[in-house]
């Protein structure tokens, strides 16, 4: 009798596996921040053109995710958090991931240029290159500043959205970039505090691996202090107003307070309670960016100062 439990090789990839290849959770933030940057820009866009522009930015974000999974499949297989991804699990081959990433890169850039303007399309192309080559291939495995410099890739989408509407860059879009750029390190370092074993096994030089958790805690708190002025500064631009100012003030007080709590904790305390405070701060950081950009949308609807 045949053994029905015998291993028959990797399962055939389904549609959901190719969707997962595009990192939809990460892409959701890309889509939302790009939409906000486009919608609150001073130059109105045709709703259909705006929808297509955001769609093509989303495809570009998905392309970046696919290229990242293609190159990082070796370390993804080692890390518990990422071992179930389509490529390391064997559901999608590395060649297929590369093909999807390159195809979507070309398609998204070309279509954004036709739908909006070529400045925005060039900006999208640079963002894909920055995430796939500068961050994934170069920085991620070579320096503890990987997430600091590489975080720029995740901060570009609202600037691309703004460029779709205006054809250029403004102070407001630069401040939206700064908000995400300075938020990224404490967000990922909070994750690294309780996932440090994964990064150690994979040989990724996160700050927790190269300098230890104590130094990482100081850096997290320091970045919350640097972040707050840029986030609040947006309130006093053409896209800001009293509602955004109130929301940003509350969020930044909470974020700084969380960073201070992390700074004061010893490793013994953190290990004893299973890094509950660090995990809570990581979840808080997810809401921080979303609520800032949601507040910008609401402020746009309400009108500014």
From TrEMBL:
Keywords: Cell membrane, Heme biosynthesis, Membrane, Transferase, Transmembrane, Transmembrane helix. InterPro entries: Protohaem_IX_farnesylTrfase, UbiA_prenyltransferase, UbiA_prenylTrfase_CS, UbiA_sf. It catalyses: heme b + (2E,6E)-farnesyl diphosphate + H2O = Fe(II)-heme o + diphosphate. Pathway: Porphyrin-containing compound metabolism; heme O biosynthesis; heme O from protoheme: step 1/1. The keyword Metal-binding does not apply. It holds the Pfam family UbiA. Its main location: membrane. Converts heme B (protoheme IX) to heme O by substitution of the vinyl group on carbon 2 of heme B porphyrin ring with a hydroxyethyl farnesyl side group. Carbon 2 of the heme B porphyrin ring is defined according to the Fischer nomenclature. Belongs to the UbiA prenyltransferase family. Protoheme IX farnesyltransferase subfamily. This is Protoheme IX farnesyltransferase. The lineage of its organism: Bacteria, Pseudomonadati, Pseudomonadota, Alphaproteobacteria, Rhodobacterales.
């Amino acid at each position: 009798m045949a053994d029905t439990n015998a291993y028959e090789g990797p399962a055939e990839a389904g549609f959901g596996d190719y969707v997962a290849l595009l990192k939809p959770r990460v892409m959701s933030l890309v889509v939302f921040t790009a939409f906000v940057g486009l919608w609150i820009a001073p130059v109105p866009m045709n709703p259909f053109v705006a929808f297509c522009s955001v769609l093509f930015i989303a495809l570009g974000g998905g392309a970046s995710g696919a290229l990242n999974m293609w190159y990082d499949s070796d370390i993804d297989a080692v890390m518990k958090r990422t071992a179930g991804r389509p490529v390391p699990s064997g559901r999608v081959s590395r060649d297929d991931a590369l093909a999807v990433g390159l195809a979507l890169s070309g398609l998204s850039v070309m279509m954004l240029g036709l739908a909006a303007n070529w400045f925005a399309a060039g900006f999208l192309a640079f963002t894909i290159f920055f995430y796939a080559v500068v961050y994934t291939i170069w920085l991620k495995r070579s320096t503890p500043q990987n997430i600091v410099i590489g975080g720029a890739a995740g901060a570009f989408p609202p600037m691309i959205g703004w460029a779709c509407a205006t054809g250029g860059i403004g102070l407001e879009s630069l401040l939206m970039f700064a908000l995400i750029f300075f938020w990224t390190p404490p967000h990922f370092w909070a994750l690294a505090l309780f996932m440090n074993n994964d990064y150690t096994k994979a040989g990724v030089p996160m700050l927790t691996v190269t300098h230890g958790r104590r130094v990482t805690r100081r850096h997290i708190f320091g970045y919350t202090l640097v972040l707050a002025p840029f986030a609040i500064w947006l309130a006093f631009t053409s896209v800001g107003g009293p509602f955004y100012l109130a929301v940003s003030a509350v969020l930044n007080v909470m974020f700084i307070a969380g960073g201070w709590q992390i700074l004061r904790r010893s490793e013994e305390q953190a290990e004893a309670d299973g890094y509950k405070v660090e995990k809570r701060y990581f979840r808080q950081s997810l809401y921080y960016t979303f609520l800032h950009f949601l507040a910008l949308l609401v402020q746009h609807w309400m009108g500014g100062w």
